[in-house]
Amino acid sequence: MEEIKVMNMVKFFGLLLLYQSPKHGYELIKEIESQMGKKPSTGQIYPFLNTLLENGIIRTKEEADREKKVYELTPEGRRFVEKKLEMFGGIISATIEKDLSTCAHCGCQVYSGGYEETIKGEKLTFCCTHCAGTYKTR
Ligand SMILES: [Zn+2]
Hints:
Layout: H1 2-20, E1 23-24, H2 25-36, H3 42-54, E2 58-62, E3 69-73, H4 75-98, E4 101-102, E5 109-110, E6 115-119, E7 122-126, H5 129-137
Antiparallel strand pairs: 1-3, 2-3, 4-5, 6-7
Helix pairs in contact: 1-2, 2-3
This protein binds zinc ion.
Zinc ion binds next to loops.
């Protein structure tokens, strides 16, 4: 199970890195390593790149002055990554919003670690003690 998760993260990073710029296979491996702190094996990367090639997500580009192939996203591949990002973005904001509360005074959104105070028997959340103080005196 753990292995599958890591594998998915490697794939996700790989796609993001290709979205930034076209890369050689070894560049991809090096950059995934520096982002994740763990070196992916070539056995993880190359079969994945081949699947992407077969599905038209990426294509290879020969560089005249360099021997090795460069992988780049096709226009369809860029849309594919953008869709994935939207999906992840939706999950992330839904997760964060669950932990959000609103400052009872200024109405700004408070992430975890807001200031709580019970005023007239009601437990209220504020973004800061200043807002709590102002709320009480109004
Ligand atoms: Zn506030």
